[in-house]
Design goal:
By secondary structure, the protein is of the alpha+beta class. The protein is built from eight helices and nine strands. It has a seven-stranded antiparallel β-sheet, sandwiched between helices. Strands 3-4 form a two-stranded parallel sheet. The radius of gyration is 17 Å and the shape is globular. It starts with 10 loop residues before the first helix and ends with a strand. The N terminus is likely disordered.
Length: 223
């Protein structure tokens, strides 16, 4: 894959990248955000005949991510606005989610947030207005030099967590040396945005090469 010299990004540059990707509607699901920076994504092909469990499929996607970025962990910038009910996470102390909440990657909150996943949250409380949710999901925290295991743990929970709701904020991996922004999703896979034209080649290869790694995945490109 293409390799470029690492570029150090300032905080304001990171926020500029996010604004180009998300815009200003922070209630939108990551899977619905498509713009000129969006390159595409890959996911498990449910049309394939297989007997693998969900977690096993996620493990394959994570292994592919490792082959692409395990030697670039120091170049990955984590940007997270993930949050979770503080009351709920306290009851889940033996989970990856709890560990990540103790180090700031996931923000425990006292407020009851209106959550859409009925099978997870039957007790719903609507806040005074939608702008509170917007405020939470736009409160990005930036992390440099995280361990690669932390990066994998974060990618994993976005695919397979039974604690996090689907609208619990955003998680992005910004990789300046490749000029791409990667995210994981619960269709078992990863999506990719380009930061600029330099990221087009690498980003497209990252998405398409999943078929060489495991042909039970499918990919969809913007063009």
């Amino acid at each position: 894959m293409v390799n470029n010299r690492k570029k150090d990004l300032k905080k304001v540059e990171i926020y500029q990248i996010l604004s180009r990707i998300i815009g200003y509607d922070f209630n939108e699901n990551i899977g619905d955000i498509t713009n000129e920076n969006f390159l595409g994504f890959f996911r498990w092909n449910n049309g394939k005949d297989d007997e693998l469990e969900y977690k096993s499929k996620c493990k394959i996607a994570l292994e592919y991510f490792k082959t692409c970025f395990s030697n670039s962990s120091n170049d990955i910038i984590i940007v997270s606005s993930l949050f979770i009910s503080a009351k709920r996470i306290k009851r889940k102390k033996n989970t990856i989610e709890y560990l990540l909440s103790t180090t700031g990657y996931i923000l425990p909150i006292a407020e009851k947030i209106y959550l859409y996943d009925e099978h997870l949250y039957n007790d719903k409380t609507l806040l005074d207005s939608d702008h509170k949710l917007n405020e939470l999901t736009s409160s990005f925290r930036i992390f440099h030099n995280a361990s690669f295991q932390t990066i994998i743990d974060l990618a994993s929970i976005m695919m397979e967590s039974d604690i996090m709701s689907s609208n619990s904020g955003y998680l992005f991996f910004i990789i300046p040396m490749y000029n791409v922004v990667i995210y994981s999703h619960d269709d078992i896979g990863f999506g990719c945005y380009s930061m600029n034209e330099k990221g087009l080649e690498f980003g497209n290869m990252f998405i398409q090469n999943i078929k060489k790694f495991d042909n039970r995945f499918e990919y969809i490109l913007r063009n």
